[in-house]
Every structure is written in C-alpha cells, then in structure tokens.
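Hi all, long-time lurker, first post. I run a small reading group and we've been trying to get comfortable going from sequence to structure in the token notation. Rather than ask abstract questions, I figured I'd post a concrete chain and ask someone more experienced to write out its structure so we can walk through it together at our next meeting. Sequence below, copied exactly:
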Amino acid sequence: MKRLAAGVAGFLTSRIPGPSGTEWQRTNFAGDPVSLAGGVRAAIGAGVAALVTGGRVGAAGVAAVTAGAVAGYVDDHREEEFESGKGLTGHLKQLSQGNVTTGVLKIGLIGAGAGVAALLLCDRRSVTDWVVRSVAIAGTANLINLLDLRPGRALKVAGAGALLAMPRSGPTAPLLAGLATTVAGNAGEDLAGRTMLGDLGANALGAGLGVAMAGHPNRAVRTVVAGATVGLILASEKVSFSRVIDNNSVLSAIDRWGR
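-- Answer (accepted) --
Happy to help. Here is the structure in token form:
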C-alpha cells in the first residue's frame, strides 16, 4: 500500500504549478529558454515520496533530498555571490586558497545530508558501513546532476536506476516507486526542452535515489554503487559524458529517444 501511495504522490507532484519569472528561466545547451520549474517539481516529488515511505528510509530520504535541494538552489540562484570554479578539482583548488565556491558549499551541504541519512540507515555501529552509505548517497546526487546536460538524460538514468533497484517489497520499495513516478511525470516537458532539472532538481532527485541505493540490504551492492559513482565523478574531470554518449550509437539512441 505504501508503494502505491508513494507512486501516486510522486506522479501528482508533477502536475502542480511550478515557479515562474525570469529568476527561474535559463538557457539550455541549444540556446533556447527553459524553465527550472521541472526541477522544483522533481525535488518536491522526491521529498513527498520519502515522507510517504516513512521509517528510517523515509527519514533518511527527507534529510538527503532537503540537503540536495538547498545546495542545488544556491548553485542555481546564488552562484554570483561566490567565487567561481569548474569541476571538482577547480572547486577544491579555490578552497585551498581560502575561497568558497558554490561547488564547495554543495560538497558540504550534500555531504552533511548524506552523512545524516547514512546514520539513519545504519543498523549497526560500523564506521566503514556509514562511510560507504554516505558516499553512495552523495555520489549519486552529484552524478545525476552531472548528467543534466541534455533533455531527459538525467531523468532517464534516475528512472532506470529506480526501476532496476526496486524490490517487490522492503523498506526502500515505496521510495523507489515514488521516484520512478516523479521521473515519469516530469519526463514529457523535460524531453521537449520546456523544463530542466537544474542543480536543485537533479541533486534532490539523485539524493533520493542514493538513499534507496544506500538502503539496499546487500552490502556488496552498496559498496559497488559508492565506488561506481565516485569513479564516474572522477572520470568526468577528464572525459566529457556528452562526447562519450554521442560517439556510441547505442547510448546516443537511448539519449535521444523521446526528444
């Protein structure tokens, strides 16, 4: 019943009116105007799905999604108030010089939210387990954000992850159901290039997915997710995901589907 309720709630959030005005308008990769309203709805959907889920997984989801949304909002709307930096290396270099960038702030906020969420998920006192879960949450939040460069790309990955990881039952099932329907409800406008997730939506949706991955009962799965996200994030410092996708016929076809 919770899975159904979370699924319905996640989809319904995609029908609520989003914010409007120039503050919520951006220019996409093709130079066309696009609204960040989709990201707000996605973040709300992830948060509502976590609330409906309840229990430790739900509480962890609320903590991580909230932190991701706040960090993303700062990056979307307050970037000019901070020093600039590009990529993880650039942000850390600025920090070493005593400067705070939005990237550094996001690392702190998302990391804190992930740490609290992981603590809520841990069923035994193990620093290693807490670290792995924290990295899985924060890493997934960052990875989904890195993929939000083309219409529908981040939503496709998040949706696929939610569907593939969804068990028939268990504490993470409602959260994953809610995330999947949140993706489905927002996909149409995102693929059409009318809305985009932005940092707010991508970080929040990714954090929710990360909580579900970090809540997986199999420790090996949690470890693989943590390692894979870190590896991909580090690879993005040297390799363009868009270029890799465009140069692979299968990935390109999947990426362009629905546009």
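A couple of things your group might point at:
The chain has twelve helices and two strands.
The mean pLDDT is 89.
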